[in-house]
């Protein structure tokens, strides 16, 4: 099973991905946790761009995310799924669509560019008001501005395949809802 957690910066993806991974392991599932951008050379360069240490235009950033994703799928996701492991991934092509479209890159072009990407079995959108997400962040990356994240959130909410979970509650309440959604799909 391929599970993706999506959402704007500061919505709780990392926390809930780790908690979900631990919960599934207690139920004797083989689970691997991964994220995009990856730790490949492309992914590390993307992280430099996100920190503001490197500059690229939005179209180039879209291509970099997509190249990183292709390598991630080929080298890690597909082999893990073939070994019958559950994959939990923080961010996937939905992030590229939401963030880079918010930068002005054409939605359909991003979608077409990512047609090679395996469709997740389940994608959960961890939804949070951008003003609250900003207050949770300790670092400041290039996209971590409330007005920009409002655009990104709007793009996510237009994706009907995402299962929306509000993270404007306690971590335990949110995690119970996520576990309930995942448990019904196993």
Please give a structural write-up:
- The protein has 186 residues and is of the alpha/beta class.
- It has a single domain (2-185), classed as P-loop containing nucleotide triphosphate hydrolases (Rossmann fold), CATH 3.40.50.
- The protein has 8 helices and 5 strands; from the N terminus they run βαβααβααβααβα.
- Strands 2-3-1-4-5 form a 5-stranded parallel sheet, with helices on both faces.
- α1 (13-26) crosses α8.
Topology (SSEs and partners):
Layout (H helix, E strand, L loop, with lengths): L1 E5 L6 H14 L4 E5 L5 H11 L6 H25 L3 E5 L2 H10 L4 H7 L8 E6 L2 H7 L9 H12 L5 E4 L4 H15 L1
Parallel strand pairs: 1-3, 1-4, 2-3, 4-5
Structure, briefly:
The protein is 54% helix and 13% strand. The chain contains 8 helices and 5 strands.
Determine the CATH superfamily: P-loop containing nucleotide triphosphate hydrolases
Counting structural domains, the number is: 1
Give the strand order of the largest sheet, numbering strands 1, 2, ... along the chain: 2-3-1-4-5
**Shape, please?**
globular
Main CATH class: Alpha Beta
Helix content: 40-55%
| Unreliable residue runs | none
Order of helices and strands: EHEHHEHHEHHEH
| DSSP, total strands | 5
**Rg (CA only):** 16 Å
The assigned CATH architecture is 3-Layer(aba) Sandwich
CATH topology group: Rossmann fold
Computed structural class: alpha/beta
Distance between the termini: 8 Å
Overall residue-averaged pLDDT value: 96
Secondary structure tally, helices = 8
